[in-house]
């Protein structure tokens, strides 16, 4: 979520670029830096759509195009999209570096083409605009031994430590290659998923696949930070691109990157986190709010103010206890409680029907981005694993860690500097 200064800056940028202001302020966990969103012909129409005689706002949703290439891959800095697909592949037996390079070339060409709109030859998305489609590619730890590229494997891909509360299914975890697809239209997202899978051909086999969603742009009259399936405002205290240390926290620096091919890249930690929603729903509102340390209605800290007000961590209530409990999720996950560790959270919710026990198979496809998991996810999850009030209501069911290289240069494919370096 943006603070008021960020909101003003974003709104100014929006009017310059002709992008719907609602769109930019709406679902953003983080708003892309200038130039990342290429244009939205229907921006003005989208803004006007609140009045009854205005054209439909959906033209704005369809016409927003995200740039391919640049310093970072798409799908990290853009606002959350309404639909998401995650898919992991293992290279086929006998496929090595050559086949992997050819696959990344195919995938890059497909992503570049589909992100412009119009869809693949399958015609599923033929009438649709780009719809904010992003396709993001990453390499898992096992990719490097399969391709003889061990010397190029980043130390940051060392396995995540085991956490005591993990109930991780290895068949739905890790993988040689990982692709994240996001779009504001379900058919556009599905079309891209199918195209990515077809491109894999004989070179790689699907290891696991998951589907997610977020609120649709334009769905609320007062857009605010996204909500998750527990009903909480989620994403408020994400690092913001306007902060001076944002790039250092989220992206591998251009100079001195180790390994060099990861310059401008980022590491994605992906956790499928089941929410025990029946248990959660039994909790009274004030108890739910104490679990997080923020109000459910508007995401403001329990010590008062608005969503963007700094929590008063030492404030004591009439009962003599700190107002924000010591085990509140939003207290113990803060950078200042974890040696400065920070990450950019950019999740999708998921719902895969009702489990055999009658409870919803639903939760969060938690995706967080950082320059180094040792200064991001790992220390924070260690802390949460030991004493997060939220732990009783969630279950980490799968896990992945991927090296996501920087955006491809002109004429380059994603990962070229690794595969041809
Ligand atoms: C290891 C990292 C984290 C996991 C796993 C995680 C799971 C998780 N979180 C929520 C809901 C909320 N989280 C919020 C804040 C927050 N969470 C993390 C990290 C993890 N969360 C961080 C770093 C922060 C920001 C802390 C800060 O700097 O203030 C919030 C509060 C609003 C916000 O800032 O986003 C909510 C709500 C769920 C439901 C969940 C697993 C399903
Ligand atoms: Fe959280």
Which properties best describe this structure?
421 residues; alpha+beta; nine-stranded antiparallel β-sheet; two-stranded antiparallel ribbon; 13 helices; 11 strands; 26% helix; globular; disordered N terminus; binds the ligand C=CC1=C(C)c2cc3[nH]c(cc4nc(cc5[nH]c(cc1n2)c(C)c5CCC(=O)O)C(CCC(=O)O)=C4C)c(C)c3C=C; binds fe (ii) ion
Structure characterization notes:
The chain is of the alpha+beta class. It has one domain. Helices cover 26% and strands 19% of the residues. The chain is built from 13 helices and eleven strands. The chain has helices at residues 4-17, 21-26, 43-48, 58-63, 97-114, 141-146, 186-200, 246-250, 277-282, 285-292, 329-332, 377-387, 416-419, and strands at residues 37-39, 65-66, 83-91, 134-140, 177-183, 204-213, 266-275, 344-345, 348-354, 360-370, 394-404. The strands form two sheets. Strands 3, 4, 5, 6, 7, 8, 9, 10 and 11 form a nine-stranded antiparallel β-sheet that branches. The chain has a two-stranded antiparallel sheet with strand order 1-2. Strand 9 and strand 10 (360-370) form a beta hairpin. Helix 5 (97-114) runs antiparallel to helix 7 (186-200). It starts with a helix and ends with a helix. The model is unreliable at 1-36 and 39-52 (pLDDT under 50). The structure holds the ligand C=CC1=C(C)c2cc3[nH]c(cc4nc(cc5[nH]c(cc1n2)c(C)c5CCC(=O)O)C(CCC(=O)O)=C4C)c(C)c3C=C and fe (ii) ion. The site of the ligand C=CC1=C(C)c2cc3[nH]c(cc4nc(cc5[nH]c(cc1n2)c(C)c5CCC(=O)O)C(CCC(=O)O)=C4C)c(C)c3C=C has 26 residues, from strand 7, helix 11, strand 10 and helix 12.
């Amino acid at each position: 979520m943006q603070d008021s200064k960020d909101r003003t800056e974003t709104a100014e940028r929006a009017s310059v670029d002709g992008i719907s202001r609602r769109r930019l302020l709406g679902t953003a966990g983080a708003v892309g830096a200038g130039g990342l969103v290429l244009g939205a012909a229907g921006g003005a129409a989208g803004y006007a759509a609140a009045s009854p005689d205005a054209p439909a706002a959906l033209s704005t949703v369809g016409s927003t195009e995200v740039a391919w290439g640049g310093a970072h891959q798409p799908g990290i800095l853009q606002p959350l999209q309404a639909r998401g697909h995650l898919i992991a592949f293992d290279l086929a037996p006998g496929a090595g570096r050559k086949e992997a390079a050819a696959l990344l070339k195919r995938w890059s060409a497909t992503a570049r083409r589909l992100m412009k709109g119009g869809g693949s030859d399958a015609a599923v998305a033929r009438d649709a605009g780009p719809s904010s489609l992003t396709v993001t590619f990453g390499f898992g730890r096992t990719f490097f031994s399969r391709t003889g590229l061990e010397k190029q494997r980043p130390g940051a891909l060392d396995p995540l430590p085991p956490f005591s509360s993990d109930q991780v299914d290895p068949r739905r975890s890790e993988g040689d290659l990982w692709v994240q697809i996001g779009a504001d239209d379900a058919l556009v997202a599905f079309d891209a998923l199918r195209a990515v899978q077809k491109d894999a051909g004989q070179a790689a086999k699907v290891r696991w696949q998951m589907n997610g969603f977020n609120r649709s742009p334009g769905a609320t009259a007062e857009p605010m930070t996204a909500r998750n399936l527990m009903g909480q405002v989620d994403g408020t205290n994400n690092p913001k691109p306007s902060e001076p240390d944002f790039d250092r926290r989220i992206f591998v620096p251009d100079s001195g990157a180790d390994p060099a091919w990861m310059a401008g890249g980022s590491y994605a930690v992906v956790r499928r986190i089941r929410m025990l929603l029946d248990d959660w729903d039994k909790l009274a509102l004030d108890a739910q709010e104490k679990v997080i340390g923020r109000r459910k209605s508007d995401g403001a800290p329990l010590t008062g103010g608005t969503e963007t007000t700094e929590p008063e961590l030492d404030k004591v209530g009439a009962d003599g206890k700190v107002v924000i409990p010591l085990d509140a999720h939003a207290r113990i996950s803060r950078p200042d409680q974890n040696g400065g560790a920070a990450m950019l959270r950019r999740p999708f919710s998921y719902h895969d029907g009702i489990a055999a026990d009658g409870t919803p198979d639903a939760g969060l496809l938690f995706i967080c981005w950082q320059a180094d998991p040792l200064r991001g996810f790992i220390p924070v999850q260690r802390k949460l694993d030991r004493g997060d009030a939220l732990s009783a209501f969630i279950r980490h069911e799968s896990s992945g860690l991927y090296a996501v290289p920087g955006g491809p240069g002109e004429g380059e494919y994603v990962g070229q500097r690794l595969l041809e370096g």
